[in-house]
TrEMBL record:
InterPro entries membership: Acyl_CoA_acyltransferase, GNAT_dom, Ribosomal_N-acetyltransferase
Pfam families, per database record: Acetyltransf_3 (PF13302)
Originating species: Planotetraspora silvatica
Protein name stated in the entry: N-acetyltransferase domain-containing protein
Organism phylogeny: Bacteria, Bacillati, Actinomycetota, Actinomycetes, Streptosporangiales
Top-level taxonomic group: Bacteria
A GO term for molecular function: protein N-terminal-serine acetyltransferase activity
N-acetyltransferase domain span: 16-186
Gene Ontology cellular component terms for the protein in this record: cytoplasm
Length: 186
């Protein structure tokens, strides 16, 4: 199954194209993961092509099982979509509650240009709306308390701060913010 989403351009930002990750994305993925700021916030850091290939295979498997729906985020230029500059994922967490977690990142080259919030908004609407792969009523967004940029993205996309969670080392060494968006918040 191939799902693609698009975000219209604005007066100050180009259109975005979201599609599942592909094996051709290895170079862009490894390049993005070289960024120290990105590595600071991620639980998985990809340092080489072999790791990136395995990660992309996991994303493809996630689509096949319907449990991990991940998108490469590409900026569109005059010649169409470029290389991936970001990532958005919807991961099943509790099928009894029709809930999933969302996560995202943008590469250093485009950070601060509103790509994360624009991509997260379109994926959130899709995940809580029309898609039937993983019927959802709630999306949870968790980030480290001191990741102010992620907090801003969450708030901009109408994810309500629900609670502050304690650290859970080693996977999550810092306290976290749990933001929530319900399908009734559309």
């Amino acid at each position: 199954m191939t799902v693609t989403l698009s975000v219209e351009p604005t007066a100050s930002a180009p259109a975005l194209f979201l599609r599942p990750w592909q094996t051709e994305d290895v170079v862009a993925l490894v390049t993005a993961h070289r960024d120290p700021l990105l590595r600071r916030w991620l639980t998985t850091s990809l340092v080489g092509d072999a790791e990136a290939h395995r990660w992309i295979d996991d994303q493809i498997e996630g689509w096949a099982t319907g449990l991990r729906l991940s998108f490469a985020v590409l900026e569109c230029g005059d010649k169409g979509p470029g290389h991936p500059v970001g990532h958005i994922v919807v991961k099943a967490t509790d099928p009894n509650e029709a809930a999933a977690a969302v996560g995202y990142w943008t590469s250093a080259e485009v950070r601060g240009r509103g790509i994360a919030s624009r991509a997260l908004e379109v994926v959130s609407r899709w995940a809580l709306g029309s898609q039937r792969i993983m019927p959802l009523a709630r999306l949870d967004l968790l980030h480290a308390v001191d990741n102010h940029a992620s907090c801003h993205v969450a708030e901009k996309c109408r994810y309500v701060l629900r609670s502050v969670l304690p650290a859970r080392p080693p996977a999550f060494p810092c306290k976290g913010h749990l933001h929530v968006r319900m399908n009734s918040d559309m």
